[in-house]
Structure formats: structure tokens, C-alpha cells
């Protein structure tokens, strides 16, 4: 697994949307925020296009991605936001060309579909970070911005620590050192059965989601369980489950019950409560990087 | 593909829940409605058990299914309702024993997970019909009940016709005669990547759903498209899409656009608008049976 070159002051970065369109009024502050990080944003057409709920049609959005990778003047790619639609682009990506031009790539949520493919099919590390049109077009806490800067500028090795006062929970003890994979549960479930299916074999699997009833979380974890993804992985790391309440609390399994029924039986080292996902403050993660997790000591460290 | 023996007056039928629990007050009228059809209901434990949103835990619900198939005094099985949870049971089903005891099996919605497995892995036809604790515990229109009786008593061959005034729509013309597969889109998407994945090769694929935002329908159809399920099938038959509105109508693709982008490009004969799914009146379908569809003439006929 290749670690792409980190960004640097003045680096030209593509700003694009693989999924939904940037809400009105957010593009300019997002551009300003990227400049404030010392980078030079290049606004791609998907930042201003519209097709239904998409930031332009599939051909336009996939074209932006293909061009951003092959353009030698672009040092890295920032997905402006998530939303919905990245997995529609997978048949349209020029993966051999992307693999030949690995570069810094970042985002999360719907962007998970792209992380998986760039890690698995193109062989380079990508970054699960906050996005300019979702979070940092407006002021964001120092913890989050510090992790973003570490991701952008090649300093994400070392311990990953939750903010003070946010303890991790051990669901299954044990230690694992493995390549990190995963991201948004909805997108990982949506990858199954396709040529771009998440491969968890021997890897540490990170999961998070937002805005799903608990029975939907149950359903997607059941699909992953049925597909052998917990059996095959080396460990599980659970992040934020934002706005995932039960439809009817009197007749529901709650998330800890669901994890106990669907993830714990696989017996892999499992930590819950990582401050990562659709939450602030949030840390950043190197997908495809090597991470060491001690689920007894409740520690995490990025090795490469 | 084996057609199980049809039911007959006085046949003992298992009433059970593979998914969610029967709502309070519906079991007795459901039992009475089955008796009114001339059948003798045998109430299995899952009709009165509760575990979170499930009708008892996975072991109890799977046990009911395994016993209902192997008990020689039971002539057929009626799923009392859908809801959520059938695909959790798949690893717990005794498929060799079920294959050795094919019998009438009916339901729809969440029950799709079981239809797929009984058709593909156990080799017998099952019935996509209304359910006693969902619809016919209270009076239901004659059209729906007529199709239910045809399914129950072995008379579902011949034309499938929408109620008067509900025209079909041709999305792609052409004719196909093939085994019918499919059901609820959410459950079909959730089968992908698992040992119980829907196989659409050379088959006519029926799809319907309820209560999903259009972007979720888009997402699930994209997963099926990415998995090659439209490329591999022989034709597509679209049923009811009940309460599937766009979250934001001003910035959404609508269902016809989504079908045009994701299903039509496969070029397989495709009809939309079948009165089947979470809707009344609804017709019944033999999953695994052979159906002839003329998408130009907009006709459907069950051959076996």
C-alpha cells in the first residue's frame, strides 16, 4: 500500500463533488477555508453543477475525478462534501490511470465508496477527514482542525486519541496490527456483491453512520455478517452513530444489543466509541494505513 | 423448479413470523381469517414472542421455520407479517431438510429473503401474497382475495391482470419467458455479497418497495446495477413503490428518471406499474414459477 505524497503550502488541490451538490452559499467560504490552510483550491465543475440530488450527472462527476487524478498540476483532491451518489460513478472511473497517479485524496461518508476502490484497486492510502463544504466552511474546533492538518500534511502517524472525557468501550479484548479499511456503513453495505466490494480479510474494519433507524443499522450489519465480513476481518473499530435512534424505543434492540448480537460473536478485537464520523470534534483516519489497536488497553496508533 | 402441492380445504397451515412481531390484537382476527379461507391455522411460538423489534430471537424464529417444514402434519406455511429480520435467520435455517420437505410457503416484503433461498437453494416455487396479520385480518377487496385464493389452492396459472384502470407502462419493449424472481428491493439489495445472494441470470426480476426516500431507491438499484443484476436478468417487472417520495422534490431525481438511468440501459424487456407490493388491491405472484411477459403488448401470463 502506497502512501501518496503529503500536501505542502501552496499545493494546488482539486475541490470537487462525487455525490451531492454544494448547498447554496457554501462554495465561497469553503474555498476561503482551504486557502486559510495554505492550499490553493482549484474549483472543478461538479462544485457548481446540478442533476437531481447530484452535483451534476454521473459522467460529469466521474470526469472530474478522472481529470483531477491525471492532471499533473493537481497535488491532491478534497471532496467538498458527501451526500449521495459516489457509488454510481464506480463503473465510470479510469482506475488504471488513477492507480498510475496516486495522490492525496480525502473525504468521508458517501466518499467511502471511493476510498474503498482507491485503497483496494489502486493501492494507495486515502484520508477519512472532515470536508470543506460540510464542516470547515465555518469555524471548527481545534481538535478536529489539528487532525485535518495532520492528515493533509503527512503527520497522521502516532497515537489516535479521543477528545478528553470521551472514553472508548471494549466489546472484545485483544490486540491487532492491520491495514485499516471501512468508513460509512451504508456505503460498505452497498458495495457488497459488486466488483468494488469491501474486502475486510485480515484488516481492521472501521464503521460509522448517520441518520439511520436502529433497525436499518441492524440490517446493514446483518448483511456484512452474512457476507462474512466480521469473520474475515482482524478487528473492528466503531465510530460515531449520529442520529440513529430506534423508531419505537419500546420494541427495539438498541445499538449495544445489535453490536452484541452481530459483531461480538465473531470474536475479533473490537473497540467502540471512537470520536470519528458525522460528529464534532472528530479525528481523521488513514484508510489503507497500518493501525495498531489494543482493545484491552483501549489504545490506537497509526504506524504508517 | 418444483411446484409444491397446493393447499386444500381443511389443510393444516403453520402461522409464524420470520421478522417482526404481530401487533397487539391482530393474532385472533388473523387466525379467524385463515379459518374463513377453509384452512386450519396452527399458531407457532413466533406469533406471540417478542425480542426487540423481532417476533422472538433469531433461534426461536428460525426454529419455527425449520419445524414447520419438517412437521408432516403441516401442509403449508403462511408468514403472518413482514417487518424486519428474516435475513438474520438465513445462517440458522436447515436448508437440506427444507429442500427435502418442499411445501406451500407465502408472504412478501421482508419475507423476500426467504423466498430467494427457498427458490434458489431448495428448488421450489413460493408465493408472493398478502399476509394475514398485515392485510386480511380485516376485510380486503375481492380482487386481492381472489389472487390469494388462486395462490393458496393451486390456480395461479394463466394471465396476471392489473385491476381495471391501472395501466402498465412499457419502459423497454420485447418478450421474455423465464423463471420469476425478486420481491422487495431492500431485501434483494441486502442479499448481495452473501451466500444467499439473489441470482437473476436469465430470470424475470420483480421489484417493489415501501417507505424509502427516492435516493435510497436509487442507491439500492445502483447496487443491483453495479452487481450486474440487470445485465444478467432476462427482463424486469416493476411493482408498487408505496410512500417513496423524494426528500426534497426540487433537487431530486424522481422514480421514472431513476429507472431510466439505472434499469433501462441494460436493454431488457421492462414493464412498470404492476399492481403488486405494499398496495391494495394487489395480485399474487409465484416466485420461481415460469412467467411470460410481453412488454410491447403489456401482458403477463403464468405458465407454471
Describe this structure in words.
- Two copies of one chain form a homodimer.
- Chain A has helices spanning 27-36, 58-70, 95-100, 112-120, 142-152, 185-191, 214-226, 229-232, 255-262; strands at 12-16, 40-43, 76-79, 104-107, 126-128, 158-159, 169-172, 175-184, 204-210, 235-242, 270-272, 285-287, 290-294, 299-302.
- The mean pLDDT of chain A is 97.
- With 304 residues, chain A is α/β, with parallel strands linked by helices.
- In chain A, helix 3 (95-100) links the parallel strand 3 (76-79) and strand 4 (104-107).
- Chain A binds chain B through residues 21, 50-54, 58, 84, 87-88, 90-91, 186, 189-197, 215, 218-220, 222-223, 226-227, 246-248, 251-253, 257, 261, and chain B through 21, 50-54, 58, 84, 87-88, 90-91, 186, 189-197, 215, 218-220, 222-223, 226-227, 246-248, 251-253, 257, 261.
Topology, pairings included?
The structure is a homodimer.
Chain A lengths: L11 E5 L10 H10 L3 E4 L14 H13 L5 E4 L15 H6 L3 E4 L4 H9 L5 E3 L13 H11 L5 E2 L9 E4 L2 E10 H7 L12 E7 L3 H13 L2 H4 L2 E8 L12 H8 L7 E3 L12 E3 L2 E5 L4 E4 L2
Parallel strand pairs in A: 1-2, 1-3, 3-4, 4-5, 8-9, 9-10, 10-11
Antiparallel strand pairs in A: 5-12, 6-14, 7-11, 8-13, 13-14
Helix pairs in contact in A: 6-7, 7-9
Amino acid at each position: 500500500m502506497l502512501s501518496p505524497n503529503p500536501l505542502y503550502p501552496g499545493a494546488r488541490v482539486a475541490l470537487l463533488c462525487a455525490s451531492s451538490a454544494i448547498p447554496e452559499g457554501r462554495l465561497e467560504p469553503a474555498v476561503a477555508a482551504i486557502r486559510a490552510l495554505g492550499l490553493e483550491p482549484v474549483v472543478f465543475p461538479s462544485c457548481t453543477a446540478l442533476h437531481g440530488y447530484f452535483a451534476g450527472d454521473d459522467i460529469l462527476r466521474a470526469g472530474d475525478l478522472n481529470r483531477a487524478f491525471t492532471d499533473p498540476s493537481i497535488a491532491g483532491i478534497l471532496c467538498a462534501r458527501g451526500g449521495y451518489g459516489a457509488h454510481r460513478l464506480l463503473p465510470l472511473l479510469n482506475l488504471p490511470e488513477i492507480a498510475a497517479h496516486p495522490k492525496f485524496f480525502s473525504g468521508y461518508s458517501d466518499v467511502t465508496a471511493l476510498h474503498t476502490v482507491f485503497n483496494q484497486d489502486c493501492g494507495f492510502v486515502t484520508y477519512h477527514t472532515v470536508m470543506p463544504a460540510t464542516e470547515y466552511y465555518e469555524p471548527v474546533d481545534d481538535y478536529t482542525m489539528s487532525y485535518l492538518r495532520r492528515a493533509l500534511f503527512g503527520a497522521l502517524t502516532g497515537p489516535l486519541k479521543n477528545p478528553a472525557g470521551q472514553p472508548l468501550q471494549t466489546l472484545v479484548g485483544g490486540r491487532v496490527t492491520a491495514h485499516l479499511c471501512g468508513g460509512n456503513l451504508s456505503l460498505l453495505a452497498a458495495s457488497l456483491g459488486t466488483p468494488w466490494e469491501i474486502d475486510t480479510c485480515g484488516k481492521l474494519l472501521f464503521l460509522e453512520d448517520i441518520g439511520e433507524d436502529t433497525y436499518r443499522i441492524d440490517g446493514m450489519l446483518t448483511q456484512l455478517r452474512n457476507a462474512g465480513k466480521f469473520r474475515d476481518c482482524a478487528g473492528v473499530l466503531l465510530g460515531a452513530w449520529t442520529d440513529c435512534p430506534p423508531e419505537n424505543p419500546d420494541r427495539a434492540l438498541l445499538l449495544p444489543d445489535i453490536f452484541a448480537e452481530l459483531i461480538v460473536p465473531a470474536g475479533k478485537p473490537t473497540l467502540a466509541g471512537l470520536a470519528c464520523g458525522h460528529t464534532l470534534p472528530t479525528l481523521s483516519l488513514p484508510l489503507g494505513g497500518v493501525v495498531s489497536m489494543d482493545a484491552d488497553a483501549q489504545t490506537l496508533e497509526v504506524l504508517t
